[in-house]
Predict the 3D structure of the following.
Amino acid sequence: MTGDGDGSDPGRLDGCVALVTGASSGIGRAVAVDLAACGATVAVTARRADRLDDLVAEVASGRGTATAVPGDLTDPAAAAAIVAEVAARHGRLDIVVNNAGVMLLGPALGAPLDEWDRMVALNVSALLHVTHAALPHLLEAATGPRGCADLVNVSSVAGRRARANAAVYNLTKFGVGAFTEALRQELAGRHVRVAAVEPGAVATELPTHIRPEIRAEMTRHFTDVEILRDTDIAEAVRYIVTRPRHAAVNEVLIRPTEQVN
């Protein structure tokens, strides 16, 4: 395994087991492919089982190892069962990337309440369910040969800057940032590194979930901006989890060069 001063390649994750949520598309899929290319055994979860199967096949075609564990992380029992299955199947859990999320923008006045509930359930509750179940396994992994474990929460620039028409999305992402930092302080002495990745505009399917009139406005806003690719965020995650044991990257804020805010 990658270690601090053990002579191994610092960019490799051989022997490590990673769990990536929201892996059926976009950032989660790119992170899973990237970590597998670094030698990690990657467990991927999301609700769309067919897409997870395609991802597992893609990883295998590159001579990596991935397993699919589909489920609904907003259900605490299902989230706990997924984490337990990954740890039991692979014997350990070294890295968790909480990526599952949804962005449903629009004015608060007259907003469908189910959109607010969906964002809180997936962006916050699902992240908490997975983290709660994973922490004992990460703490155990941190005592192993690698000497550390990693929890990476994918947040957003919306967790730093509030904007009109994003009130509940801001609420969820500010919450993720606070939770991440508090947990980092709690676990620092036990070598479980906790980090937040905060992307700006990224080319994923997230905008397709937004109501058409809001999506059109968002498209106009970024007309002259070359937005990020999902692989840009995957590279940031890889950087975080491949640091030597003594170095913890706490936050990565990554925007398109031309994005102002």
